[in-house]
């Protein structure tokens, strides 16, 4: 292209002009963006429970622990989290009915919401089963239940190496 010179400064200025003109938002969309919408839709006939948004947000934060949930759309995660807070015992048909009532032409996809709903139910059950006191391992077991020993020897303050012979 003879006669045209595009340097990085010109391209940057053009990008900024386009972004300003179109008022683009460059934020990434998270499940938190959908929480208000789903609360307004699912709780339209009854008053929302106290601290509803906090409970939904807590469930959404719990999705970080499950890699399979992180692959789903933010809207599916938010919808499922709101439904779990609404009722942890919804049947497949009830979840489908609530999602179909939103009239969003297949958005969010029902299968995604159902998968997330089931996974979030599991996370909620695990949370209820774990006692809140004492030191816990990632699997929710105390060191004595796990069969492990403290990783630091109090007299030397040095980390001990793993000894797999104790596990046999």
Quick recap:
The chain has 168 residues and is mostly helical.
Helix and strand topology:
Blueprint: H1 8-22, H2 35-42, H3 52-62, H4 74-86, H5 92-100, H6 110-129, H7 143-146, E1 152-153, E2 158-159
Antiparallel strand pairs: 1-2
Q: Can you tell me about this structure?
A:
By secondary structure, the chain is mainly α. Helices cover 48% and strands 2% of the residues. It has a two-stranded antiparallel ribbon with strand order 1-2. α3 (52-62) packs across α4 (74-86). The N and C termini lie far apart (73 Å).
Keyphrases for this structure?
168 residues, mainly alpha, two-stranded antiparallel ribbon, 7 helices, 2% strand, elongated
Oligomer: single chain
Number of helices: 7
SSE succession:
HHHHHHHEE
Which strand order do you get reading across the main beta sheet? 1-2
The secondary-structure class comes to mainly alpha
Work out the radius of gyration: 24 Å
What is the averaged pLDDT score?
A: 75
Shape call: elongated
Largest sheet, in brief, is: 2 strands, antiparallel
């Amino acid at each position: 292209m003879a006669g045209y010179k595009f340097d990085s400064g010109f391209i940057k200025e053009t990008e900024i002009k386009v972004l300003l003109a179109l008022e683009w938002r460059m934020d990434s969309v998270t499940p938190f963006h959908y929480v208000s919408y789903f609360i307004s839709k699912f709780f339209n006939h009854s008053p929302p429970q106290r601290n509803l948004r906090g409970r939904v947000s807590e469930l959404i934060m719990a999705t970080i622990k499950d890699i399979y949930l992180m692959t789903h759309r933010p809207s599916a995660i938010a919808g499922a989290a709101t439904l779990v807070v609404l009722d942890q015992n919804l049947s497949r048909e009830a979840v489908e009915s609530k999602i179909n009532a939103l009239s969003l032409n297949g958005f969010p996809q029902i299968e995604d919401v159902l998968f997330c709903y089931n996974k979030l139910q599991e996370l909620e059950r695990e949370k209820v089963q774990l006692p809140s006191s004492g030191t816990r391992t990632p699997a929710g077991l105390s060191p004595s239940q796990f069969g492990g020993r403290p990783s630091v020897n109090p007299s030397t303050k040095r980390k001990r190496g793993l000894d797999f012979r104790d596990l046999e």
